[in-house]
Design goal:
mainly alpha; two-stranded antiparallel ribbon; 118 residues; elongated; 2 strands
Length: 118
């Protein structure tokens, strides 16, 4: 997965999102060890302190856990991972509806368009 960053949001926040997607998609599986901060920082071409901040946010959200001699691992709490996945999906759907309304579609027209595509 490419680590393309934009200037619209802080880098650590974008890193958080990219790692979160890797967790909910199963690239980083529940209970598995994450690559080190330095490894991921090098891969993403960012400062390790910036990656550390993204990790701190992920830990604060309960999606990763620091274990003394093992480093950081993805939580084994599958409900927490599913909740994060659901929140991401809702965010995408809300964004889609907002964009469609901006184009002038009402809810019924949006539903009809989605049904025609599905």
């Amino acid at each position: 997965m490419a680590w393309q960053m934009n200037s619209d949001r802080p880098i650590y926040s974008q890193l958080y999102d990219k790692i979160l997607i890797r967790i909910v998609c199963g690239i980083y599986k529940a209970g598995n060890r994450l690559p080190s901060v330095r490894e991921l920082a090098a891969e993403a071409s960012v400062n390790p302190n910036t990656m550390q901040r993204a990790f701190a946010e992920l830990e604060h959200s309960g999606l990763i856990v620091t274990q003394r001699n093992s480093g950081r691992v993805v939580t084994e709490n599958l409900a927490k991972i599913e909740e994060a996945k659901h929140e991401l999906a809702l965010s995408q759907v809300n964004s889609f509806f907002a964009n469609m309304r901006e184009l002038g579609y009402n809810d019924q027209e949006i539903l009809e368009l989605v049904k025609s595509i599905i």
